[in-house]
Amino acid sequence: MILLKLRSLLPVFFLLSVSSSYGSVKENVLLQDTISYVSPFAETNKGCFKCHSLKRFEYTDEVSGRQKRGLMLPRMILGKQQFYKSNHKSFSCTDCHSHDFAIYPHPEELKSELHFYCLDCHGGDPAYAKFKFEEIEYEYRKSVHYGLEEKGFTCWNCHDPHSYRIVARNSKSLTEIVAYDNSICMNCHSNKKTFELFSDHNMVNFKRIHKWLPRQKVHFKSVRCIECHGTLGKNILVPHYIVSSDNAVRECMECHSDKPVAMSSLLRNNSNFESAEPLIDEAGLSGIKIIGPNRYRLIDDLSLKIFTALLAIIGIHILIRIIKK
Amino acid sequence: MYLYPVWVRLWHLLNAILIVILIVTGAVMQYAGSENPLLMAAFAGASRWHIIAAIILTISYLGFVIGNAVSGNCTYYRINEKNLFSDMGKQLKYFLWGIFRHEKQPFPVTVDNKFNPLQKVTYLLIMYFALPLLIISGLVLMIPDMTLIKLFGQGTYIVIDVLHIILGLLISLFLIIHIYSCTIGPKPTSLFRGIITGFYGGDE
């Protein structure tokens, strides 16, 4: 239904494009090796995948009747397997793209086909209300990433509709959630070419810049970048308000304490998420302990008092020894 | 009188350096936070050096246990169970009262009896109870994905974590008392000189 609505409202189509590098990283974190899903549009989509899943393509020119060959632009290469595991796996390519893409070679004007962004389809639709897309948009607009839009940054850079799948909401494996979500960040932040598309800064070596973080490998495997680099909105599951590195969490106790607030997004289970209650529920976080040494204020305060008392006793002892000498 | 053989002095020196490193780095990690930006800046280095020192300390501790057993140094730690509490009471009374009245030490240092009853009990508790537990708990903290956690749950981890912190604090308190009590000798420097040269400067 939403697709019909979109077709009527936006008779513009966008170019089929996907970054192959995204796919390869995400592929590594997929737990399933096989695709059990069979798309009702598998046959229809096959025509697109025939060329768009390959580096080199070949087609018959409908005018001249001659065989033509060419190299596919990397961003046009689509991972078929990733697509059929993605959120949009049930789609036909022409649900979002023009039917004119069935013409080979594709008409020139299709190159300017406009993209749909998340809100174009998911905004204001009660069927997607639980995802709180409007709040995601609101949070994203505060994010440092939003400032990159003038350089072409869009939702697609993190959530490519041809491959993105919701893991945080569906997976019970924290390891899988962390690996998948971090791979999204790493696609730009460990890839100089992609990074420099949107940033004038030099790409920093993320291992070096996190040198201060003890047990770096364990942290990178156990928490998502967004736990420290994002601020969680009130009602959304995943932080989309990405803060500047200066404002990232550096306080261990944000996680390593009785209330691991910084990890509340990651730790929240699915049933909590479906409830109408605000997601930042400190009471719900009580008692959750994070693997790794925690900091206990009581021990801190008590120990300082004991040390002070001991030093005072020793001071008095020394004083009496001097007096009674 | 010659009290401290070379291996004991070398072990003691190494142990002292490592314990100081461990306490300082442990304190940095314990008290670091947004309210202490300097400690926060030192956090990564402290964490790294804490692990390095801890590994060396573990090896040196095993060396100490073996050395004690082989050399017979362990006999100095043997306590007189019968009069343990009364002897400890005598020693404590001396530290808190007798010393100011220039009384004689109730348990003067001899070649056969290097430690007073309080020292014996404290050293025994520190070396054969606190330190092994500290090392084991530290190893668990160092390798957080250990099967132990998987088997017994995160609760175990929290207990081990708190235990490690408390034992670390106790050893820090011990160090302060240990250093101060070493000023109580024929001269304030006698015991320090003794542990460096091996010779203790006479009776009190």
What does this structure look like?
The complex is a heterodimer of chains A (325) and B (204). Chain A is mainly alpha-helical and 325 residues long. Chain A has a domain at 297-325. Chain A has helices at 2-9, 20-29, 42-52, 80-83, 93-96, 118-122, 133-140, 174-189, 192-198, 206-209, 216-222, 225-229, 264-267, 270-274, 282-285, 297-323; strands spanning 56-60, 67-71, 230-231, 241-242. In chain A, a hairpin with a 6-residue loop joins strand 1 and strand 2. In chain A, helix 2 (20-29) packs antiparallel against helix 8. The longest helix of chain A has 27 residues, at 297-323. The model of chain A is unreliable at 1-33 and 269-289 (pLDDT under 50). The longest helix of chain B has 29 residues, at 43-71. Chain B is mostly helical. Chain B starts with 5 loop residues before the first helix and ends in a 7-residue tail after the last helix. Chain B is globular, with a radius of gyration of 19 Å. The A-B interface holds A 211-215, 218, 250-253, 289, 291-296, 299-300, 303, 306-307, 310-311, 314, 317, 320-321, 324 and B 29-34, 40-41, 43-44, 47-48, 99-102, 141, 144-145, 149, 154, 157-158, 161-162, 164-166, 169, 172-173, 176-177, 180.
Total beta-strand segments of chain B: 0
Mean pLDDT score of chain A, rounded?
78
Oligomer: heterodimer
Low-confidence stretches of chain B: none
Strand order of the largest sheet of chain A: 1-2
**Largest sheet geometry of chain B:** none
Number-wise, the strands of chain A total 4
CATH topology of chain B: Fumarate Reductase Cytochrome B subunit
Helix amount of chain A: 25-40%
